[in-house]
Every structure is written in C-alpha cells, then in structure tokens.
Amino acid sequence: MIALFLGLYGLIGVVWGRRTMWVSTFPMFLFAFCMPLGNFTDLVTLPMRMASVTITRMICHGLLDINVVQRGTELMDANGRYDYDVVAACSGIRSFVALLALTTIFAVLTFRPLWKRGLMLLATVPLVICCNVLRLVVVVLVAQTYNQAAGAWVHDWFGFVTFLAAIGSLLGLAHWLREKPSPKGA
User: Fold this and answer.
1) Does one domain contain both 65 and 123?
2) Which residues pair with 84 in a beta bridge?
3) Distance CA 162, CA 89 (A)
4) The pTM is what?
5) Which one of 28, 71, 100, 158 has the largest count of C-beta atoms within 10 Å of its C-beta?
6) pLDDT tens across 93-104, in order?
7) Cβ(42)–Cβ(73) below 8 Å
8) How many domains are there within the chain?
9) DSSP-derived secondary structure letter, 180
C-alpha cells in the first residue's frame, strides 16, 4: 500500500513535473486516509479502548455511584445485569480517522498559521476519547436503568450523537482560534 501511494505520487512528478507534484501534495495526503490501516489498528485501538473503559469506570464509580467492574476492556455490572466488551471496532478508531480527515481539510482551508492547524489536529485525539467515554457512560446508564438490550441499542445509535458533538467541539475551537478583526480606526 505504501509503495502504491508513493509510486502514484512519484508518477505525478515524473509525468507533470515538480510544480504539479507540489500542488498535489495535500490531495495525496488526503488519499492516505483511504488506505486500510491493517495490523496498525491493534497498536492504536488497545490504548484507546483501555483509556475509554478506565475513564468510564471512574466516572460511573465516582460521579454516578454505579458499581461497574472493569476487567481489561470489559465493563460489567457487579450484579451481572449487563456485560459489555469494548472491542477494537468500538474503540473509536473509525471516528478518529473520519474526524482527523475532516479536521485536516477544515484546518488547512481555514487557518494559515501552522500552530493553529496543528492544534486543531491534536484536538481530535482527546475529543474522540471523550466522545467514546460519553457513549460508554450513556450505555451503562441505560443498561443500569433498563437492561442490556436497551444499552446495546444505545450503543448502536448513540455514536452519531457523539460524532456530531466532536464536530461541534472542533468548530467551537476553530471559532476561538479565528483571527479577531481589528477595531476600526486603529
């Protein structure tokens, strides 16, 4: 995959020259988001899963007074009413890749200074983890209140809400980072 990617990029330079190659750098960078992650996902998803599950357990114990037991990446009720395993697909990796691609495009089109672009890109990591924690907490709350099937339904559909919350948070950060207009007459 890397050879295909670099080969296409090199072909652009050979056929149309360095200027066209330079102009196509950003689209080729975006093309990299289309590449499958393969075995690399295991290196990224396990820490994301562990962080999300640990933070969820701490919130459930400390703030919500819900007795949730953590075993690795598994969250379960102490009474056995529900049991959820946060598998690799539920780690937030798909949201992370999609949000990083959208944020990359938005940051490059919106901001000139590199530090603002970089800050926008760095903000995606904690946002994805926070949104995944929010989703897990809501799943636990619904499962605690109703049952495991209701929690599973929330698990399947609440990801859209958290993804929109992440996009809204990034737009809020961009609004805060925007260039302030100078006062007239100054």
Assistant:
1) yes
2) 75
3) 16
4) 0.81
5) 158
6) 888 889 999 999
7) no
8) 2
9) P
